[in-house]
Amino acid sequence: MAGADERPEVRTEGAGPFTTRIVQPLDEGGTAEWESRLARKRGAVVIRPAGHAQGVHRHADAAALGRLRRLNSTASSAFAIGGALFVLGAAVAQFGWGGATTSAVVYFVGGLFFNTGGYASLLQVINAPRPEHGPHELITPRWRWWSFEPMRIDWLSTFLLFTGTLVFGINLVDSFLHGLSAQQTNEFVWGPDMIGCALFLISGHLALVEVCHGRLGVRTHELGWWVVAVNQLGSFLFLVSALAAYARPATGVMVDVMVANWGTLAGALCFLVGGVLQGFEHPVAAPASAARLDVGEIGLNRA
Description:
The protein is α+β, with helices and mostly antiparallel strands. It has 8 helices and 5 strands; from the N terminus they run βββαββααααααα.
């Protein structure tokens, strides 16, 4: 039997070396909960008093919330616009609305928006408020343009996403080259396309692990899950498109032009929808009655 002075331990959740949730008990009952996605997207932790099923969000300071809103708006808008341009580029190619150069230009401009969205997502992770003194309180770090934190699942996921957009950029630039043999096309255009797709899929898997805290599943009640799931579907469709775009060595013709175009169009539409949904996953002003909670008032158990 546990001793009278024995207190419940801090509980962590995640997968492998990655921590996605920390739950710490309060002296007076209840818990303080930090989740990596909630902290960086909405700038909040959850204080759940004993006997209350509904938790109360404790927010970071106003400067941090403003920073997160701006970065989230930039990322969501960039992915939505980039997705829309990729939809247009695929439609141009499929329906013959313009030549190959027209389609390539549209894809290239869309790729620049994907670059912007990827980097804004990484910046949001780098500059998100952190639970430096425990899960009850978020501390706003100084602004940084770069960091190296591979043991954070959100950093690794967004870094791979941003890297994937850069690799796609190589693919899009190389698509302007003319007179390439089938081997050269596969090496300079198809190869980077496949690498970019793989990076997107790995990034999306890590994002699913983060939002599900290590146990992959369906969480239709969570907006973050919808954002990640829709984008992951888009990444899979991009992979299907890339496989169909392989140039046969004997003829130099794609495996299936229609599948390549429609796969790109459908995948881009997913990123368009994901970008729009992400626009709603932002910090919200806390109610005046529960905007801030004092550490002294909640009786945090530090033992």
